[in-house]
């Protein structure tokens, strides 16, 4: 079965590897007292205390005899992510095998720290490699994170609606899933007018992509629908973005990348569920046929939408997909979208904004985020703010006031989710503005590991 390639940070388990000590600052003195006098003097001279994010090479008769890596939270993958680039190239093996949860964090963090996007530019020096048998689940989780990064980092010329379709189709083939796409004017014929309206101005035809998979086996299985915003490039439409706001809009398909990678992870781990993945894939382009402010659009649900702002296009394509999701009668709907700048203003780049119509679902996702060190933050579906989406000519407007922008976007989406259907929406940045260990500048998976852990727990895993 094809899987997304991993970063080059892992060595065979039987590699001739140098010894690596993983030491927290809180345990450093005890560890140090057990070392030879030469090592104690060497580290004392360097004022080394195993502070989080630090590395020191250890001396020996033949030169470097090993290394010590300072770590913080042993269960946080990013506590280890500095090691692949801070250590000299070569193979390294922990002196003492970490307990299982810490070993998984180590392997995941090592992979995240070794990541480079090298499709268009050589990746630089090879990272140090970890010689430790890679846990199969960690391998699949890491591959999902890498897929998100690679997809988001790929420029729009190579990650348009057709390329998103090819990505999903290949994943479907690899896992024996069904796949279908509705392209161009067929969207109008089959009842997806809002997706068509947003994408109609582009020379790259809009489309709705669908993957269906069933784990098989005996008994009933919960039906999960994942929906991802696939705006492959966002000019803002006729309400055109300024240059700095448009600069990184190749990442506006980050929600689709999250949903696609999560679906692949669920299938790879064969969670006992039925899965449907829906991705509306469009360019929000400027052209003679671009949808205009003031237009009233039809939607699949029959709700008329007045366009207040063409740059609030993500919710317009998502509403048709969410309407289809509701028609399928699922047990749970999760959508992922790079939806609002307001969520970033409220929570910054690292905390995705979680909205949910079910308290238990929200609590499960938040708890999984804490366990996995993949945090997110719940925001309110404060329904009195629907007044900000009032239209005098249609059932609802796609935008309005500048107040509570992330909340009103989520409320708009909720309008297209059937009453009684459990639903959560993650407004995610999908990006790192600058480089930190394990979090390189560029595309990023946020809330993805937490979503997988939450779904695994709910499936009894």
Automatic annotation (TrEMBL):
The keyword Mitochondrion does not apply. Keywords: Aminopeptidase, Hydrolase, Manganese, Protease. CDD domains: Peptidase_M17. GO terms for cellular component: cytoplasm. One of its GO terms (molecular function) is metalloaminopeptidase activity. SUPFAM superfamilies: Macro domain-like, Zn-dependent exopeptidases. The keyword Manganese applies. It comes from the Bacteria. One of its GO terms (biological process) is proteolysis. InterPro entries: Leucine_aapep/pepB, Macro_dom-like, Peptidase_M17_C, Peptidase_M17_N_1. Residues 309-316 form the Cytosol aminopeptidase domain. Belongs to the peptidase M17 family. This is Leucyl aminopeptidase family protein. It comes from Luteimonas wenzhouensis.
């Amino acid at each position: 079965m094809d899987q997304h390639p991993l970063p080059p940070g892992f060595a065979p388990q039987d590699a001739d590897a140098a010894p690596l000590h993983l030491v927290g600052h809180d345990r450093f003195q005890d560890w140090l007292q057990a070392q030879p006098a030469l090592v104690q003097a060497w580290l004392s001279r360097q004022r080394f205390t195993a502070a989080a994010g630090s590395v020191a090479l250890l001396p020996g008769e033949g030169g470097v005899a090993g290394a010590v890596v300072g770590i913080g939270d042993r269960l946080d993958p990013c506590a280890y992510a500095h090691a692949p680039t801070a250590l000299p190239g070569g193979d390294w093996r922990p002196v003492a095998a970490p307990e299982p949860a810490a070993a998984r964090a180590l392997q995941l963090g090592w992979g995240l720290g070794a990541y480079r996007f090298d499709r268009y530019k050589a990746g630089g020096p090879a990272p140090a490699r970890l010689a430790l048998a890679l846990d199969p689940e960690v391998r699949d989780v890491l591959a999902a994170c890498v897929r998100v990064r690679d997809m988001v980092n790929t420029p729009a010329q190579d990650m348009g609606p057709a390329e998103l379709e090819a990505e999903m189709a290949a994943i479907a083939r690899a896992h024996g899933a069904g796949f279908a796409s509705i392209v161009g004017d067929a969207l109008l014929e089959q009842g997806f007018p809002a997706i068509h309206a947003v994408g109609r101005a582009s020379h790259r035809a809009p489309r709705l992509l669908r993957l269906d998979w069933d784990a098989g086996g005996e008994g009933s299985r919960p039906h999960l629908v994942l929906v991802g915003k696939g705006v492959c490039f966002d000019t803002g439409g006729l309400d055109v973005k300024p240059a700095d706001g448009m600069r990184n809009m190749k990442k506006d398909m980050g929600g689709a990348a999250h949903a696609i990678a999560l679906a692949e992870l669920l299938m790879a781990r064969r969670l006992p569920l039925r899965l449907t993945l829906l991705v509306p894939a469009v360019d929000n382009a400027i052209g003679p046929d671009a949808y205009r402010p003031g237009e009233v659009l039809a939607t699949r649900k029959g709700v008329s939408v007045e366009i207040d702002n063409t740059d609030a296009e993500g919710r317009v394509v998502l509403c048709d997909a969410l309407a289809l999701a509701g028609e399928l009668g699922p047990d749970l709907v999760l959508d992922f979208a790079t939806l609002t700048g307001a969520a970033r203003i409220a929570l910054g780049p690292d905390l995705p904004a979680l909205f949910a119509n079910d308290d238990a679902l929200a609590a499960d996702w938040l708890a999984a985020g804490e366990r996995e060190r993949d945090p997110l933050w719940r925001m309110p579906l404060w329904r009195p703010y629907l007044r900000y989406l009032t239209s005098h000519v249609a059932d609802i407007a796609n935008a309005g006031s500048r107040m509570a922008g992330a909340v009103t976007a989520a409320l708009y989406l909720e309008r297209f989710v059937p009453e009684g259907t459990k639903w959560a929406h993650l407004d995610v940045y999908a990006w790192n503005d600058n480089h930190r260990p394990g979090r390189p500048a560029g595309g990023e998976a946020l809330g993805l590991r937490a979503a997988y852990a939450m779904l695994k727990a709910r499936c009894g895993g």
